[in-house]
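User: Hi! I'm a student and our assignment asks us to look at how structure tokens line up with a sequence. Could you show me two examples?

Assistant: Happy to help. In each example below, the sequence comes first and the structure tokens follow. Example one:
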Amino acid sequence: MKDKSKFSAEGYNSLIQTIIKWDLDEQTKKKFSHLNTDKARRVIYTTATYGWYIDSFDKNSGINLNKCIKIIYNNLPHKLDEYLGNYYKNNKEIIKNDLIKKYPTRENIFIEIFEAYKSGLYHSSICLLLTQIDGICEEIINAKFFLNKNHLPQIKVKLENCQIKYSDFLLSPINKKASINSWEEEISEFPIRLNRHEIIHGVDKTYGNEINFLKVLSMISYTNMILSHFKSD
């Protein structure tokens, strides 16, 4: 005789999973439905070419995409640095706490990164922060950001395979290269020279400043947002 209680439990668990999926879909819709995704895709990739990665698209996030467009189209990169630099500087503690919460085995590393930053040790804090971008990607989806596959980040294929709503614009900074993850011979194609390979291998000796730290902070915060979004689906 079939165990009715077993089937009832299976049916209940299936219903719960369906409700959770509906709730997550609704949360996703609330996060992104107010956006013009074509515009958002262009903006967040263009800001990435200047070293800035957008980590939130909530209405009240503090980042105005239209303002970013205006600054970029008026060719005012110093204004973009000022605008997004202030945003990430004001949110650095929130970002740090979120990273520690999501990746507790890396807590000591993140604490050291932010202590180095507070002490003005920008070369050290930037190098260490760059290593953790690949680290959290490997931890969540077993793929790396700075390891290329078909000339683009290894994480691209795994994230695309998830077939998540809004991935067309969320992944735009991953679907194309930016200065940070380009080959050395490609760097001149971008408006800034901030490149992970040149930093890690000792080629760039001038990267140690607060703005570049905040740019790399924006990148790991964006990466964390992407990983959290795709993991939750």
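Example two works the same way, sequence first and then tokens:
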Amino acid sequence: MANWCSNFFAIYPKDDSDLGKAQLKRLFAQLRKVTQIDYPEGTKEHGWYGLLSVMRGKEESEIVARGSIGNIQWDEDHIHMGTQTAWEPQDDIVREMLDCKECSELDFVFIAEEGGNEIYINTDTSGRFFVDRYVLDYDLTDATGLVGEGGVGGDREYYSTAESLLRQLHTICDRLHSWSYNNSRDGIETFYYKWGDLKGTPEEQCELIYIAIRDYMKEYDDLFGSCYISYHKFEYA
């Protein structure tokens, strides 16, 4: 069974020319039309990802594409398209779709996430369409005393800056310190009292605090049960 990679594409004109705008509108109409194709039950699913290649005249037997096209939206100056693909983004399909005369003035960026293979990609270096740069995935709900007002439970959170991620990691570390003190568990407080002296960029500090929290939870895994924490940075590609 495949791990599914969640992808979001933004397709936009390279400049403010009338040609680029016209090409974008024409492409949107083509995408809406082709994704309405229904295949017989048991063959291909509705919204098969390979339809992007079919739209360019490619024979289905020649297409290697596993996945589906989700919502396609017109959003003022760009097309927003979501896809689910097997194992990896398969962004080459979109690249090939735009590699034609009628899309000569169009370009795209995308963001992709597949945790099983640790794929975290954001090609939007400007942050025009996709601002997420970090993802923090954690669940501390099994740790008594960590949930409630001002506490931290379980969540999957996205951050556009290292500074905002750092503030949340401070919050988690602060709560773990309180829990540690109340349960006579040494370890995190040594790091807790030193974090004001941490050196390096906000991103480097995030890494240090994350490692400290992760290692502390491992040390007392008998008390943290199924709790977990993971942190990833979206890489530019």
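Here is something you could point out in your write-up. The chain has two domains: 4-122, 134-233.
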